[in-house]
Amino acid sequence: MITYPPIKFECRVNGKELLAEVETTAHDGGKFEFCTKFSDGYSDTVFHDEKSGVWETGHGKTTAYFKKIKDDLSALLFYPAFKHYLNFRHKLANQVVNIWVFETETENRNVVYTIYYHGNYRFEMKKIRGGWYAKTVKQDRPETIDEELIEKIGKMIDDRIKK
């Protein structure tokens, strides 16, 4: 069992801008428990079983809160415990979404940054000779990578490293 440090992120529920806080516990067998709290006082526990793909909540799957953060919880399934991450809101195709950037190490110990939104892996980035390079390893449906997003993420990572 691994309990991750709490992670906060912005979300919009029932027309209100809120701050969500999630503390994740990963249990053996691919089972996850997400203790969620929102800045308006609402809280719930969400459970996910990777094998079956089933999501369950203490207040019922159809709550507006769960629907608004399910993509974020899906991304957090891939968060490498205790590594650096970034999260920010970004407009893609006329929709504001949370972008998740996780620092990851490859097998040969190189640092890459994996990017998730809409609950799924989208692409990865690494710095090569002073510039940010992005590629996707998605085989089923590779998509065009938003150059503005690459530039924004690269600047955020560079700014964080300078601190």
Short précis:
By secondary structure, this protein is α+β, with helices and mostly antiparallel strands. The protein contains two helices and eleven strands, in the order ββββββαβββββα.
Q: Can you offer a commentary on this structure?
A:
With 163 residues, this protein is an alpha+beta fold. 18% of the residues lie in helices and 49% in strands. It contains two helices and eleven strands. The protein has helices spanning 64-76, 147-162; strands spanning 2-3, 7-13, 16-27, 31-38, 43-49, 54-57, 85-92, 95-105, 111-117, 120-128, 131-135. Strands 1, 2, 3, 4, 5 and 6 form a six-stranded antiparallel β-sheet that branches. A five-stranded antiparallel β-sheet has the order 7-8-9-10-11. A hairpin with a 4-residue loop joins β4 and β5. The longest helix has 16 residues, at 147-162. The radius of gyration is 16 Å and the shape is globular. The mean pLDDT is 90.
Beta-strand share of residues? over 45%
In round numbers, the mean pLDDT is 90
Q: Point out poorly predicted stretches.
A: none
- Tell me, what's the shape? globular
Instruction: Calculate the terminal CA-CA distance, rounded to whole Å.
Output: 32 Å
Helix/strand-derived category reads: alpha+beta
Helix content: 10-25%
User: Biggest sheet: strands, sense, closure?
Assistant: 6 strands, antiparallel
Task: Tell me how many strands there are.
Answer: 11
Count of runs of 4 or more consecutive helical residues: 2
- Rg over CA atoms, rounded to whole Å, is 16 Å
Element pattern in H and E = EEEEEEHEEEEEH
